[in-house]
Amino acid sequence: MNYNVTIDMEGRGEFSNFIYQKLEQCKEEYPTYIAKNKESVQPINMMVSNEEQKWVGGISSELYWNWLEINDCWVYEQYRGQGIGTELLRTVENMARKRGADYAMLTTFEQRTKKFYVANGYKVVGEIKDYFPGTNFYTLKKTL
């Protein structure tokens, strides 16, 4: 069988879509539990606004199967230390728990962020040292 390999260093979106669609077509080969439709993913996002109604922080997450995945959580520097991040995290965890989530997970490469999540009950379950030079990449998990 003959074939050609092409290298693309420009990040073509149509190729990523092609791969995604082909993987979606393979779902019937997966166990039913894993093969849930992408539509079953429930986003849970919360935004924090200041007095001028400008966003100063928030959390972006998704609920699927029995997992809550925290995608991003961020608060402007001048609003930190007031418990906003902890409140966002606890609220989204409670919402996910009520919708059937048993676990929460996230990834981060910032040491300060890792400490924040550990202080909120998450445990490091994976670490890649020198993910980029001088910085480690962490996967954290919490039982809800």
TrEMBL record:
Entry's transmembrane regions: none
* Limits of the N-acetyltransferase domain: 5-144
Q: Which GO terms describe its molecular function?
A: acyltransferase activity, transferring groups other than amino-acyl groups
What the entry lists under PROSITE patterns is as follows: GNAT
Cytoplasm in keyword set: no
Keyword list (alphabetical) reads: Acyltransferase, Transferase
Q: Read off the Pfam families from this record.
A: Acetyltransf_1
Keyword hit for Acyltransferase: yes
Q: Which InterPro entries match?
A: Acyl_CoA_acyltransferase, GNAT_dom, YpeA/RimI_acetyltransf
Annotated PANTHER family = ACETYLTRANSFERASE
Output this protein's name. Answer: N-acetyltransferase
